[in-house]
Amino acid sequence: MTVSEFARIPMQDDEATTIFEKGAPGRRAFVAPPLDVPQVDGLIPDKFARAAAPRLPEASEPEIVRHYVRLSRRNFDLDSGFYPLGSCTMKHNPRLHERVTALPGHAKLHPFQDPARSQGALELMYNLERALGEVSGLPHVSLQPSAGSHGELAGVLLTRAYHEDRGQHRTTVLTPDTSHGTNPATVTMAGYKVVKVGTNADGGVDVEDLKAKADENVACLMLTNPNTLGVFDPNIEEIASIVHGVGATLYYDGANLNAIMGISRPGDMGFDIVHFNLHKSFTQPHGGGGPGSGPIAVSDRIEPYLPVPVIERVESGNGAGPHFDLIEDDARRPKSIGKLRGFQGNYGCFVRSYAYIRSLGAEGLKDASETAVLNANYLLAKLHQDPEVAQYLPLAFGKLCMHEFVLSGAPMKKELQIKTLDLAKRLLDYGYHPPTVYFPLLVDEALLIEPTETETRETLDGFAEAIVAILKEAKDDPSIAQAAPYSTPVRPARRGRRGEEPGHPSAARLTAVRPGACRSGRRPTTARR
To answer: Domain Aminotransferase class V spans what residues (predicted)?
Structure first.
């Protein structure tokens, strides 16, 4: 099969049409029966009422189902293949969690339900808070933030409240140059100035640079450990001492928590505030922007400022067992930073994450992290087992890694004339989602790879073989990778090295690849001239 034939597989190369272009006037999928209750007018103010009925598509149920199924198949997803998106921890989302979340008591719980009639949900949330507190080594937890970035904002706002309560006006927040992009964005949103801290030769925080920039104006240092280079900083206790020595707080970006669960706790390292990404470490699915969840855990000195409402366990004293309340009384929480969102959070995220924690237990969480680190180091070793990969894609820092690692494509770009972006796009033709590219910013032509603990050795082997195959292909003809991908719904205009469409002698050797064709040692076939 040639590349052009592969590109015409149904639902990949077909022309995109909207649901409005399908169907015909009068077609229906479902028609609601007439109202059997009195109609009440005036519920919607006139200024919000439509002047005309909305223009909705008129399609049959099969047309609607096929439309959305077709759309879903045009996208790469975690259920379709390997997704080594560094720093995003794209690991399998167990179906058991979906079944538990869909139980009527969870799925049909109304957000306005009175706490007295929501005891099961409040107990689950309370227990999830205790579990996250144990994982982080910090005793006080709020489930409110709706995402990791929202958790970051909550953490910096807590820092602001902490300092203002002491009459201190601090102006800057320190962030490493390896930090996630949301860190400086969060700092700016919270009204602080970003000050970057450099990285040392081993990939950790430059302690001397930190000492030079840590002064009485610093409110906080935002740090993730291990960091986005996949390096666990051995100087973390000294770093904490420096930050606390100037009266600042130490904030833990929990995006990389999947590497250390059950092994090391941020609270024990000296951190005051931690956020969790439930969609990363605790298998809540990535929501494409929502719903999400980014709870925060804090130390005793930060606890008075936690957002409201706070879940409280109350002992009945009459032998009936405890009950749970939502506390948002200003008189009881006078120093709280207030509400961060409506209601208490995205409850379905809590159910899935709690199910994950309870199904694995403490030893299971530790095993998950150890396997994630093992898989990352195995894949790194597998890749560098090939001399050409080691030559063209060297490890940016160190010799080993934690849960992820960063390769530099600078030699590949110089010697093979293909960029990291070209390699990433060509991987799609091999049935693999590309890793994160061009991040962290301090690594030239960065390729950030995170295999997670849920992938098999055969999958990792196949991915490594695909990288090797692309590099060997690029030595012969870099224009193949430069014009990739060939098998996706959206593709670049086809131009060869000399401006020809694919059909010129160089493009005739394009590799036709079935998704996952490199697995189990199978090499992609090559179209002959």
So the answer is: 169-287
How many structural domains are present in the chain? Answer: 2
Q: What percent of the chain has pLDDT over 70?
A: 89
Q: How many residues make up the chain in this entry?
A: 529
How far apart are alpha carbons 20 and 279 in whole angstroms? 34
78 part of a folded domain: no
Neighbouring residues of 171: CB distance < 8 A, sequence distance ≥ 6: 192, 193, 217, 219
Q: 322 lies in which domain range?
A: 97-354
**Both tokens of residue 20?**
């409005």
Give the residues across from 193 on adjacent strands.
172
pLDDT tens by residue, 396-435:
999 999 999 999 999 999 999 999 999 999 999 999 999 9
522 has pLDDT over 50: no
Q: Give CA–CA dist 18/25, Å, rounded.
A: 15
Query: Sign of the CA dihedral 189, 192, 193, 194?
Result: negative
Helix, strand, coil: what percent of the chain each, to 5?
40, 10, 50
Which residues, 6 or more positions from 323, have their beta carbon under 8 angstroms from its beta carbon?
116, 119, 313, 314, 316
What is the CA 92 to chain-centroid distance, rounded?
12
**Whether residue 389 sits in one domain with residue 339:** no
- DSSP-derived secondary structure for 256-325: GGGGTTTT--HHHHT-SEEE--TTTTT-PPP-SS-S----EEE-TTTGGG--S-EEEEE--SSSS--EEE
- State the pLDDT at residue 507: 39
Average pLDDT over residues 68-90: 89
Which of the listed residues 354, 375, 396 is the one where a domain comes to its end? Answer: 354
Cα angle, residue 394 at apex, residues 392 and 458 outer, rounded to 5°: 90
Q: What is the pTM of this model?
A: 0.87
Longest Cα–Cα distance of the chain, Å, equals 86
Q: How confident is the model at residue 319 (pLDDT cuts 50, 70, 90)?
A: confident
CA dist., res. 106 & res. 83, Å (int): 30
